[in-house]
């Protein structure tokens, strides 16, 4: 296709009129689709319904060591659940793992909150400092940014690359500024771009020399086993082991959950870290809870059994998700390829596709889609404070709609990208003409 940037003003006007007419027709279809979050489809939830049959009123509720999961005890997770989550996360020892409730986000929130009120391993509580900052690779996960903003932590954008965050920038900032206390990371199939950190990136993270002794890497390994393909899977190094090798065993907190492996919001979540970090967390947990839901932990252990069981189960999810990702990518390639008005990622896993529109166009594209009945994640949501400096990034979540509805939504989306892009180019031509 001919690049839109090579079109004359007259050609752009003709194209805009055509696209405007198509858009008005699209609005008349009465679409009502919500693609604002990365939610599993109902068909995905159906494949794990038999997890509800694992434990019945006549089941044995004892752990291998004889602990009755129906009663109080074991504040940091049953041993079998620790082992299962360690295998999923790629952590070498279950001793490095605490299993909590249903959401890794809750563990992240508690970890930031505990650092604010009580400090990190004896350091000054963050709430008593004049300034606390976090590095935020962006585009990134909006809920991470919401947590740090909630606590009044200043957020600094670090650009993402296909290999992970800009490590030159990360190394420079953390080594020079003692007020930088952490960095958010989604190291595998990142939200929203689907990038996975290279071995070099992971090693550079592990070897950081932060000015702050209480600096921590918040390593949200949310999509660690969320592959779309059997024969094309990203692999990342174990950050826990790499930090130990680099002499920084306490520098990282790793988080994960089964929220999109088993039921979202009804899975089990875990944190992996050094003994010192986990001991500090256990100490605080004794005031916070008598213990998390051991019955749910036992249910997951009995259902999945081990990592092989989890991988086999995730293939069922992939078989449902893969056609949706491929359908959206086919529409993007077919309708926008060669036009030079957008670029997008082609992830091998995770839950999102990230598109970069022309600067200044993302908000208008999302608004146009909403007006025609398709709700997307708000433009700018993938950046701290909800502000994309270029107003170009749009997160596409293909998983929830049925395939036919998804294709309708993708068709409308590319139409809106084209329409807003022609308006942008026409404005540029008009500005140039006025300047002359």
UniProtKB/TrEMBL annotation:
Signal peptide: none annotated. It comes from the Bacteria. One of its GO terms (molecular function) is transaminase activity. The keyword Hydrolase does not apply. Keywords: Aminotransferase, Transferase. It holds the Pfam family Asp_aminotransf. This is Aminotransferase class I/II-fold pyridoxal phosphate-dependent enzyme.
């Amino acid at each position: 296709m001919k690049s839109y940037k090579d079109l004359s003003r007259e050609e752009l006007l003709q194209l805009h009129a055509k696209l405007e007419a198509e858009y008005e027709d699209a609005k008349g279809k009465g679409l009502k689709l919500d693609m604002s979050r990365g939610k599993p489809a109902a068909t995905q939830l159906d494949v794990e319904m038999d997890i509800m049959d694992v434990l019945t009123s006549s089941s044995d509720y004892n752990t291998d060591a004889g602990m009755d999961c129906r009663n109080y005890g074991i504040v940091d997770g049953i041993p079998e659940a620790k082992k299962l989550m360690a295998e999923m996360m790629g952590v070498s020892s279950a001793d490095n793992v605490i299993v909590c409730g249903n959401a890794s986000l809750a563990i992240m929130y508690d970890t930031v909150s505990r650092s604010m009120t009580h400090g990190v391993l004896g350091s000054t509580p963050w709430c008593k400092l004049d300034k606390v900052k976090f590095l935020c690779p962006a585009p990134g996960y909006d809920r991470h940014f919401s947590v740090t903003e909630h606590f009044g932590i200043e957020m600094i954008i670090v650009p993402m690359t296909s290999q992970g965050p800009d490590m030159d920038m990360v190394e420079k900032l953390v080594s020079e500024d003692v007020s930088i206390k952490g960095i958010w990371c989604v190291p595998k199939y990142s939200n929203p771009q689907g990038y996975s950190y290279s071995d070099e990136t992971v090693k550079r993270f592990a070897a950081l020399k932060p000015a702050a002794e209480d600096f921590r890497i918040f390593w949200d390994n949310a999509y660690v086993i969320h592959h779309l393909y059997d024969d094309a899977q990203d692999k990342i190094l174990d950050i826990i082991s790499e930090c130990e090798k680099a002499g920084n065993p306490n520098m990282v907190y790793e988080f994960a959950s089964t929220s999109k492996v088993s039921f979202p919001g009804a899975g089990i979540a875990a944190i992996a870290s050094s003994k010192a970090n986990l001991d500090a967390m256990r100490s605080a947990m004794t005031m916070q809870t008598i213990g998390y839901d051991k019955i749910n932990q036992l249910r997951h252990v009995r259902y999945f059994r081990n990592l092989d069981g989890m991988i086999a189960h995730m293939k069922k999810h992939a078989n449902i998700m893969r056609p949706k990702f491929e359908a959206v990518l086919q529409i993007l390639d077919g309708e926008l390829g060669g036009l030079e008005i957008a670029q997008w990622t082609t992830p091998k896993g995770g839950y999102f596709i990230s598109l970069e529109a022309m600067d200044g166009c993302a908000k208008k594209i999302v608004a146009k889609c909403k007006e025609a009945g398709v709700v997307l994640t708000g433009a700018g949501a993938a950046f701290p404070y909800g502000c994309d400096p270029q107003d170009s990034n749009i997160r596409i979540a293909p998983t929830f709609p049925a395939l036919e509805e998804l294709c309708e939504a993708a068709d409308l989306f590319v139409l809106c990208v084209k329409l807003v892009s022609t308006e942008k180019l026409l404005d540029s031509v008009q500005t140039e003409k006025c300047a002359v």
